[in-house]
């Protein structure tokens, strides 16, 4: 969203993640990869992997000698620059560690990254993609709904696997795309399920939903409407543009309608604007965000008290607090050169993304085919991809539906290292379980 | 009824800030005939300078420097644009005015791009001493920030209107706006009038920025610049050469926008987020009925 994302299909969301314990994922990946690697065979690049058989791994585009190249279509100058920089750090840290510990993919192919900056501009992204595609085995990241949607047909034509950093359900229609986490609609449902389960809201509650009139917002709205239909609730919708940072009128209207909870699918700034407007209007109801509605920076602003008190967030990626979290955080702080830097949730999203990419590549290696087509086939065959808690268990065999129904429910926390705490990891509410996408 | 009054009050308070911005826009137009599309960036600069200084020198001093700095920047821009025009007199031909207007658009993009890069994904707080508090009368809530904004806007606008009428600069500005060449022949230094107009407009923009970044808006982020794009139609609606018009246009845009957003559920046939388009629809409607705007001077041409 170029900065400002005019009309943009809201894109990337920096999944909420808790303490950056990405290293948990790392260690799991490491173990799995080790099981699939050929130790001591460094001098026989094409002789591989899987289950000790001597079969030769087929290689193709994106692999040269013992180097495997992955493409990143990032945004380091546009609206998501701050998140984009953290993503880049996450990928660098992850693959450096992975290459070192496992000798790369298949125990043989050192992973190298080909990075391009889209500036969150579809045109620039299309050009950059055309330039990088002959060099890569797969696209580790295509950042933003609008860009991912624009490149969807290209990825199919080029037979490349891509990971969209966008969680719109429509992207799951393309079997070449591997969405990392739950889609926006599932997040909304899980968030409401959680609030109901904890007694924060009750059945039949009137729901206000403030959302962008884009794929991002509309997809989340489908989830809110589904939940409302199942629970005898009524939804009052307020569509807003991405640059609208005064939500007083919307909140005034919702107050008049008597809503008991407000869901928001917008930008982080709009989350803060919503918090401030509810305070001004004396509407003390719980607030629920999904997608990229929360960043730690919000806790330095005026909306802090309201957010700490009654804001909940449902997102698709998350990480669990473990002993290794400190190691990753330290590596991050060293990378940015600031001892007290607070990463955006994009850091953990990056780890989850790289972890999924590694698992898809190792599956292709195990099947003996690391060509782009082989990687696509391997991706489609994964039904229970486990990232060790970085995100819900992923099933990539069924295009058109969210690869997982599990989300992370988190709350802002002023004292935590990454300014949030997970209140329900890998949460799958009863309505999320039964959710069927509306035709 | 409470909802309606709330929306009305909110609209008026928002409109008061639009009026401050539109007033600056109008002053610049009157003095130099240029449509200053860099006005959004002036808001942005004012808010940014204030936000960066607040932690070290406190709110009052930061605002003072923010306002002074933005006013100064506006004059520098004016000099930059006009120094090569009309052999130093600042009197631009029609073609030059068009070129200068486009140049302000370029300046806007350059300034905004740089500040956006500096801010990144942060939302900067200006730490207004009145904070995020609000008061409520009979269920109608308004933040202190907006209340103070209305008061300040009223005082500044009245002060400006008085200056416009009673000071030498005001008379010179009006004379220049009426007939720049004749005014120049009468000894009015056009460049001085113009520079002072830009100075005032820059200062007003920075003041507006202080309130635009206060509750219930969460703080400063790059979207502040887009608010100026709402003040443009406000200025046109009022009549581009009318200071009273800027005030009326600002309030009108604020109120209509608030009511449309508040009653969006009854206006679904307009496609949801219609609030953003409303100022422009309103502008078209007004211009169809009154081509010079509500308070603008009708151009009389002898045939």
Structure, explained:
The complex is a heterodimer of chains A (439) and B (303). Chain A is an alpha/beta fold and 439 residues long. Chain A has helices at residues 22-35, 81-102, 122-132, 145-158, 184-197, 215-230, 248-256, 268-280, 304-310, 325-336, 346-366, 372-380, 430-434; strands at 63-64, 67-74, 110-117, 138-143, 162-165, 207-212, 235-240, 261-265, 287-290, 311-315, 407-412, 420-427. Chain A folds into two domains: 22-182 and 320-401, Rossmann fold (3-Layer(aba) Sandwich); 184-315 and 410-434, Response regulator (Rossmann fold). Helix content of chain A is 38%, strand content 15%. In chain A, the strands form two sheets. In chain A, strands 7-6-8-9-10-11-12 form a seven-stranded mixed sheet, sandwiched between helices. The longest helix of chain A has 22 residues, at 81-102. Chain A is globular, with a radius of gyration of 21 Å. Chain B has one domain (2-224). In chain B, 69% of the residues lie in helices and 3% in strands. A two-stranded antiparallel sheet of chain B has the order 1-2. The longest helix of chain B is centred in the first third of the chain and has 31 residues, at 2-32. Classes of the chains: A alpha/beta (439), B mainly alpha (303). At the A-B interface, helix 2, strand 7, helix 7 and helix 8 of A face helix 1, strand 2 and helix 10 of B.
């Amino acid at each position: 969203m170029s900065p400002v994302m005019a009309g943009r299909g809201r894109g990337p969301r920096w999944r909420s993640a808790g303490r950056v314990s990405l290293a948990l994922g790392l260690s799991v990946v490491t173990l799995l990869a080790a099981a699939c690697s050929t130790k001591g065979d460094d001098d026989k690049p094409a002789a591989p992997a899987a289950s000790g058989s001597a079969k030769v791994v087929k290689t193709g585009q994106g692999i040269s000698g013992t180097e495997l190249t992955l493409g990143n279509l990032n945004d380091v100058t546009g609206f998501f620059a701050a998140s984009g920089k953290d993503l880049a750090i996450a990928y660098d840290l992850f693959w450096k560690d992975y290459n070192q510990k496992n000798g790369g993919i298949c125990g043989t192919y050192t992973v190298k990254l080909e990075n391009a900056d889209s500036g969150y501009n579809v045109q620039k992204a299309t050009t950059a993609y055309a330039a990088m595609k002959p060099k890569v085995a797969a696209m580790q990241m295509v950042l933003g709904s609008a860009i991912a949607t624009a490149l969807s047909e290209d990825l199919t034509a080029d037979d490349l696997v891509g990971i969209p950093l966008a969680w719109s359900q429509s992207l799951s229609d393309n079997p070449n795309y591997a969405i990392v986490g739950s889609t926006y609609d599932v997040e909304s449902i899980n968030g409401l399920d959680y609030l109901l389960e904890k007694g924060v809201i009750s059945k039949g509650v009137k729901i206000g939903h403030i959302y962008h009139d884009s794929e991002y917002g509309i997809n989340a709205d489908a989830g809110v409407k589904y939940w409302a239909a199942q629970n005898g609730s009524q939804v009052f919708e307020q569509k807003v543009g991405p640059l609208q940072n005064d939500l007083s009128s919307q909140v005034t209207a919702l107050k008049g309608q008597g809503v008991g909870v407000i869901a928001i699918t917008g930008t982080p700034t709009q989350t803060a604007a919503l918090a401030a407007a509810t305070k001004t209007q004396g509407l003390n109801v719980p607030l629920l965000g999904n997608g990229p509605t929360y960043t730690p920076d919000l806790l330095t602003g005026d909306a802090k008290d309201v957010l700490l008190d009654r804001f909940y967030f449902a997102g698709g990626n998350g990480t669990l607090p473990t002993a290794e979290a400190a190691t990753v955080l330290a590596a991050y702080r060293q990378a940015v050169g600031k001892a007290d830097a607070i990463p955006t949730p994009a850091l953990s999203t990056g780890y989850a993304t790289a972890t999924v990419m590694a698992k898809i590549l190792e599956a292709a290696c195990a099947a003996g085919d690391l060509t782009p087509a082989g990687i696509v086939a391997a991706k489609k065959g994964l039904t229970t991809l486990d990232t060790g808690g970085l995100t819900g268990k992923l099933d990539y065999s069924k295009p058109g539906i969210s690869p997982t129904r599990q989300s992370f429910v988190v709350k802002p926390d002023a004292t935590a290292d990454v300014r949030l705490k997970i209140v329900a990891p890998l949460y799958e509410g009863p309505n999320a379980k039964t959710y069927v996408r509306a035709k | 009824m409470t909802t309606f009054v709330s929306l009305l009050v909110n609209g008026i308070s928002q409109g008061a800030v639009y009026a401050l911005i539109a007033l600056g826009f109008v002053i610049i137009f009157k003095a130099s005939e240029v449509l200053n599309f860099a006005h959004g960036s002036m808001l942005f600069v004012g808010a940014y300078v204030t936000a960066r200084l607040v932690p070290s020198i406190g709110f009052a001093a930061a605002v003072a420097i923010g306002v002074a700095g933005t006013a100064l920047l506006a004059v520098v821009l004016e000099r930059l644009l006009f120094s090569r025009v009309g052999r130093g007199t600042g009197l631009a031909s029609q073609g030059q005015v068009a070129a200068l207007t486009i140049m302000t658009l370029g300046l806007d993009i350059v300034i905004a791009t740089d500040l956006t890069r500096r801010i990144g994904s942060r939302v900067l707080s200006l730490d207004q001493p009145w904070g995020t508090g609000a008061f409520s009368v009979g269920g109608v809530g308004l933040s202190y920030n907006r209340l103070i904004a209305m008061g300040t806007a009223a005082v500044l606008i009245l002060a400006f209107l008085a200056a416009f009428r009673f000071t030498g600069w005001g008379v010179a500005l009006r004379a220049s706006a009426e007939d720049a060449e004749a005014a120049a022949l009468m000894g009015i230094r056009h460049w001085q009038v113009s520079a002072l107009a830009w100075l005032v407009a820059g200062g007003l923009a920075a003041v507006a920025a202080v309130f635009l970044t206060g509750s219930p808006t969460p703080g400063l982020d790059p979207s502040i610049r887009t608010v100026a794009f709402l003040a443009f139609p406000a200025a046109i609606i009022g009549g581009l050469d009318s200071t009273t018009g800027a005030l009326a246009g600002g309030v009108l845009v604020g109120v209509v926008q608030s009511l449309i957003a508040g009653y969006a559920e009854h206006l679904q046939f307009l496609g949801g987020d219609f609030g953003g388009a409303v100022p422009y629809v309103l502008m078209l409607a007004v211009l169809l009925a009154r081509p010079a705007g509500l308070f603008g001077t009708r151009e009389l041409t002898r045939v």
